[in-house]
Amino acid sequence: MRGSQVSVASNLRVTQMRVGEPIDLIKVVSSPICFLVLFLGSDLGFSDGAFVFGAQRQDSSGLKETPGGNSNQLIPQESKQLKPPIRLISKDQRTSFDGNRSFDYLKDICKIGPRPSASKGMGKQKKYIQTHFESIGGQFLQQEFIAKSPYSGKNVKLHNLLIRWHPERTRRILICCHHDTRPFADADKRNPRAKFIGANDGGSGVALLCELGHHMESLDGVFGIDFVFFDGEEFVIQRPRDQMFLGSTFFAEQYSRGIPKWRYECAVLVDMVADKDLQIPLEGNSLHFARGLTEEIWDVAREIGVKEFVPEEFKFIRDDHLPLNEIAKIPTCDIIDFNFPNPTAGNIYWHTREDKIENCSAESLGKVGAVVLAWLHRKQRTEK
pTM for the full model? Predict the structure, then answer.
């Protein structure tokens, strides 16, 4: 994500003019294989416009084969993948978000190392996410698209990952994060070409959703829940040449071109939510595009006593919620602490080697997760 220095009090109305280049300058290469969504298991049967989900088979060679048997669409699997521990819980514990277990997931993710788009680390993390959510009852899909590599300028395959809960429900809520890390610690004053872990920026959203997934099957109500892990949020080496938000832009474009029979009524983005000194103000673009949703979430935080959700307006942040709001027209709120490590020091750990597990907190993950889960319960109760 990228922050602007413009106060919410500003009267400027055009998001792009506040923060830099327009969102419509983001370019994702289109091709016949750009929207390939794979599902391990039975076909969900969606063929609504651009949202087409196909079944996936795996042969003895360890290659995944898409329908039709086209050898050009075989996706090789790495022989050595991390397998997440299956941290099961009894049903009577499912009402409470477990910050400690979420932090354990964050530790696992950080052990993989850096996870830039199209890297081996990203491949290992993708397998980790798949294995975890399948083990707790989620339906795993992936949305493949093509983007220009900032390293070589050549086309590479990136993947948004989708987890579905209660797929039969046509009214749906989207909970999302990005799962890639910056290729280099380009804000690190000592070594801007260093690789870094991305525990908070990249890892924290994944870890929060890994824990939140334990509570989804038992979430009764009218809404089905989808988790989306966006790829290419910061597949960036040189600014402004390299564009951000590739995965969320592609996802939003496909959704807007062919609205499926089911629809997203709102979305919540979580990013940089494991900061030890957690303070989450009301983000400017969230208020601009989805004020009712944003204030609703902060009201829930107040009701359950999470004071770290600060009811004060903050700067406008460029993040994956912009394509969802502007292109897909899904009201989306960004829950983000953009002062890492704290408001006094500023955002000095962002995109540096200090973005590591030691500067993250199980307590912070627990508080954000508790708010999101409580809000989901409220939505299910109030919308009948």
Answer: 0.81
